[in-house]
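Q: Two folds, back to back.
A: First:
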Amino acid sequence: MKNSLTAVIYLEPDQVSLRIIELPKGRVINDVRSGALALGDGKIANYAQNMGTIVNNLDGFKQQLKDYQAYNTP
């Protein structure tokens, strides 16, 4: 099997993360994390308040995927 890169994006209550992974080895090639997102009361995610920041991070992640040529794998 040819090595290929794939990516996983995590939306967590306090940050957005991207991991680019080499398959089939499962080796992490790049791990990118956003800055801290503002939490709501009781440390609960406030995605509505952070939507602009989340979208901005996703746009940056799209560029990382393009730079690394990471694609969906079947």
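A: Second:
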Amino acid sequence: MLMRKLTEGEERLLKKFVTNLYGPVYFIHSLPEFIIPPINSKVSRKDTSWRLNILESLTSGDLDINDFLTTSEIPMDVAIKKAKAFHEKWVEKFGHSSIAEQNFMHLCIEDTSRYLSGDIELMNKRPSFIEWSQRYQRPTRDRFIIPPELDDYPDLKEKFIKVWNISFDAYETLVAELTEFLKSTVERNEHESDKAYINRISKIAFEDARYALLLSAKTSFAVALNALDLQDIIRKLQSHGTKEAEILAENIINEAEKIAPSMMRHLSPSKYQLAVNKDMEKIAKGYNFNDDSETSDVELIDYTGKNGEMTFLDILSMHILFSYTGKPIDGIIKTVKALSREEKAYIVESAASKMDQFDHLIEPFRAVRYKFQLKVSEAAWHQLLRHRMINFNAYKPTVENGYTVPPNVEKAGCVDVLKKAIDESEKLYMELSEKLPNVCHYVVTNAHRRIVLMDADLWAFDHFANLRCTPEAQWDIRSISYKMLDLIKEKTPEVSKFLARRKQS
């Protein structure tokens, strides 16, 4: 991300609020909590460091926060020493880990690979992420990660750089071709200026062109988390198997020590964490799987009540009645089984009938679940990861499941441009998978698909569909969302009326 040289005055001011001024990993601290989300929100659509956004807000930006900052000089070395002694007693000696859960932190990571960022979001479900967006910002040729493992393999490193450049050439060609195509197909809005119109269709163009880019492309993200979850992520980074993750873990530890030294404990991965991935991959490779059968992009493979004595409608209405009576469950089950389908459907419909587009379902709707198998592009996968309440199971990025071609790329007659980038990616992937298997995933493109298991309760799916089945959602994830919605409506029609409430708005 863009970070300029600061003046001495800017450095003095900013160093009060970040753990370092120029490095790629740092923590934000000593700012009012309500200020940090607006600063973070700028990053997905603005290619500047969080530090510059903070500085802007401190001086001449749209957030006047100076009135909220303390002017007292606190002897931080004394405070840290006392806090460390306290935590060593209560956290270390007495195992009171809830203290670490209360230590809330704001971590910024700039210029890491898109491959690693996706894996980090799977490492712990509780933190909240906001990421630099390839949908809204145009990457540059120099913004990609060269895996450090390649330093010992100069020939492979040269091929890696060549394939990145081929992918970026394809990206730039697609942006240009798609922009011209969209000029003839996208109508100008009333009173829209030439600049606004070109800016709007250009964003559509580079949103689709990004399917040619490799997962080695750089991204940046901020994460809000507690110290306990940070410890967990650090251990998983150290057992990730890539040098990029190992270096990142070290940088995070160094920066965290500056603001929470007493919390940086138990950071070495366990024997289990170091061994389990390799052990299970070895075991899995010992089996022959019949993968010749054609599978659809979206399959509903299981749902609550599919094969049990009680149906989906039984279980959902049972949980609703339990939540509003508190009676023993055996009696509620007998009552529910005696009800007609219409009566049970009425209970469910009544529990959702007065919702508007911004409401959430009541808690009993968490009791029923759906499990899907999805075959999605890496571009769509990185959007799915935003939904923190949904459970995902996924293997590493691969070229073995085909790829997605954006409809506009096909309509504009540019498939061959995308295909060239994909072909070069796949050639290098195969070579790296033999020589450096931990590195091959960096050359997978955003177009390549991975197979994902998605397990969501009805509450979480309702939230997901309400966001993704809308005209504003990106076409790829919107298409996936509608396919899931159709399958749910087919198997459990009683929930059809309230799902995806915003889709017509």
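Q: And?
A: Strands lie at 25-28, 104-113, 128-131, 218-226, 298-303, 369-377, 391-394, 449-457.
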